[in-house]
C-alpha cells in the first residue's frame, strides 16, 4: 500500500552557501565542511570519475540541499545507513549537518573499493560521525533508525537491499526521481509494503519515498 502526498511542500531555490544556510539553518562550521567536501570531490574527480564534473557547479542545490532536506523528516533518528552511497550522497551531507549531535552516526555503504577510499578520506579529513563499509548493503548486519539511498537502484531492487534493516526496526527515506509512480507499481508486484510519497524541496521533479513497513517478498 502506498500513497502520494498532496503537493504541500514547495521547492526552495538554493544556489549557493548562503541560500543553503538560510534553508537549513546550517552554521558556519557545517558550511565550511561542505565547502571542503566539494573540494574533495573536485580533487578526486581529476584522478577518477566519481561524479559528473558539471554537477559540481550546482553542488549546493543538486547535492547538498537535495541530501539535507530529508533530515527534518526523521528528526529523532540518530543512526542512518546510506545504501549504495557512491560519493557520499546523502550520507556525507547528513553527517556534516549533524556532526555535533550526540549519538548521531551514519553508515556509508558501497561495494566499490575506489569510492570507499574516497569516502574514508573525507570522513577522516572532516572528522565526521560516519563509518565506511566496503560491502554489499544486504550483506551487513546493522541496526539503524533510518535507511536511505539516492540514485542507487529501482525501488523493487532497493527494497531487497533494505529488507535486512527493516527486520531490525528501520524505516526508509529514499530520494527518487519523476518515475517514482511506476517504480512503486513495479515494487508492489513483489513486495508487501506501506509507503507515502512527498515532493522534493530541491527539485520539482523529485520525490521522497518514506517506507514505514516492508513485508516479505511475495510472488506476483
UniProtKB/TrEMBL annotation:
Alphabetically ordered keywords of this record: Cytoplasm, Methyltransferase, rRNA processing, S-adenosyl-L-methionine, Transferase
Q: Which reaction does it catalyse?
A: guanosine(527) in 16S rRNA + S-adenosyl-L-methionine = N(7)-methylguanosine(527) in 16S rRNA + S-adenosyl-L-homocysteine
The record's listing under PANTHER family reads: S-ADENOSYL-L-METHIONINE-DEPENDENT METHYLTRANSFERASES SUPERFAMILY PROTEIN
Cellular component, GO annotation: cytosol
Does the UniProt entry include the keyword rRNA processing?
yes
Extract the InterPro entries matched here.
Answer: rRNA_ssu_MeTfrase_G (IPR003682), SAM-dependent_MTases_sf (IPR029063)
Q: What does this protein do?
A: Specifically methylates the N7 position of guanine in position 527 of 16S rRNA.
The name this protein goes by in its record: Ribosomal RNA small subunit methyltransferase G
Is Transferase set as a keyword in this record? yes
Give the location in the cell: Cytoplasm
Residues annotated for S-adenosyl-L-methionine binding in this entry: 84, 89, 137-138, 150
Q: Name one GO molecular function term.
A: rRNA (guanine-N7-)-methyltransferase activity
Taxonomy, superkingdom = Bacteria
Which EC class heads this enzyme's classification?
Answer: transferase
Give the EC number(s) under which this enzyme is classified.
2.1.1.170
Query: Which Pfam families does its entry note?
Result: GidB
Q: Which SUPFAM superfamilies does the record cross-reference, listed alphabetically?
A: S-adenosyl-L-methionine-dependent methyltransferases
Q: What is the similarity comment for this entry?
A: Belongs to the methyltransferase superfamily. RNA methyltransferase RsmG family.
Amino acid at each position: 500500500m502506498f500513497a502520494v502526498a498532496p503537493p504541500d511542500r514547495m521547492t526552495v531555490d538554493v544556489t549557493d552557501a548562503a541560500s543553503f544556510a538560510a534553508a537549513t539553518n546550517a552554521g558556519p562550521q557545517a558550511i565550511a565542511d561542505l565547502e571542503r567536501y566539494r573540494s574533495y570531490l573536485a580533487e578526486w574527480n581529476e584522478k577518477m570519475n566519481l561524479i559528473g564534473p558539471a554537477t559540481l557547479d550546482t553542488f549546493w542545490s543538486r547535492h547538498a540541499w537535495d541530501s539535507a532536506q530529508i533530515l527534518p523528516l526523521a528528526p529523532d533518528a540518530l543512526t542512518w545507513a546510506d545504501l549504495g552511497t557512491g560519493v557520499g550522497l546523502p550520507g556525507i551531507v547528513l553527517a556534516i549537518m549533524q556532526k555535533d549531535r550526540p549519538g548521531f552516526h551514519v553508515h556509508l555503504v558501497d561495494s566499490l573499493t575506489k569510492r570507499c577510499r574516497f569516502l574514508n578520506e573525507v570522513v577522516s579529513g572532516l572528522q565526521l560521525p560516519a563509518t565506511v563499509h566496503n560491502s554489499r548493503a544486504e550483506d551487513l548486519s546493522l541496526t539503524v533508525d533510518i535507511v536511505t539511498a539516492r540514485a542507487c537502484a529501482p525501488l523493487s531492487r532497493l527494497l531487497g537491499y533494505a529488507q535486512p534493516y527493516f527486520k531490525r526496526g528501520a524505516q526508509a527515506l529514499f530520494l527518487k526521481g519523476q518515475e517514482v509512480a511506476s517504480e512503486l507499481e513495479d515494487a508492489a508486484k513483489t513486495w508487501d509494503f506501506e509507503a507515502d510519497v512527498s515532493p522534493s524541496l530541491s527539485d520539482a521533479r523529485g520525490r521522497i519515498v518514506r517506507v514505514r513497513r516492508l513485508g516479505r517478498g511475495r510472488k506476483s
